[in-house]
Amino acid sequence: MTDRVARARYEYEGTLEKLEQDVRFEVMRGEDWSELDLAYLREIARLEAEGKVRKLASFWAISPHPPIYRAMTEGSLQLGARSMVFHKGDEIVWACPMTRDRFELDLPVLIGDFQDERTQRLCGVMSNAMQARMA
What we know:
The chain is an alpha+beta fold. It has one domain. 36% of the residues lie in helices and 22% in strands. The protein has helices spanning 4-12, 16-27, 35-49, 97-103, 130-134, and strands spanning 53-59, 67-71, 75-79, 82-86, 91-94, 109-112. The strands form two sheets. Strands 1-2-5-6 form a four-stranded antiparallel β-sheet, with helices on one face. The chain has a two-stranded antiparallel ribbon with strand order 3-4. A hairpin with a 2-residue loop joins strand 3 and strand 4 (82-86). The longest helix has 15 residues, at 35-49. The radius of gyration is 15 Å and the shape is globular.
């Protein structure tokens, strides 16, 4: 789920291992990708191939720093039996389990305008993360 540029930044700074641990233990909480997570990947790839979304040159602020996509047309994402509508200009990003818990989301996706969320942070610094609770 990590954007290639975000990963490269951690690699360049010599902190890739820190990102990998954050993804494994904070983002994914030691579990595997859910079927809905995998469905999101398939759907966003389909929408990109159809020209309905395009990957932006930025990524979500919080680890694992997934790519952000901009809707080029009206459309919807199908995740399981559910559908999420988006409008031209909306931004679409994968929502990690911690984000889902925080915002009480049923599906692993956020749709909106995320211009203010462009600062790179690890998930472990969030108040409900394991590391933050132990500090």
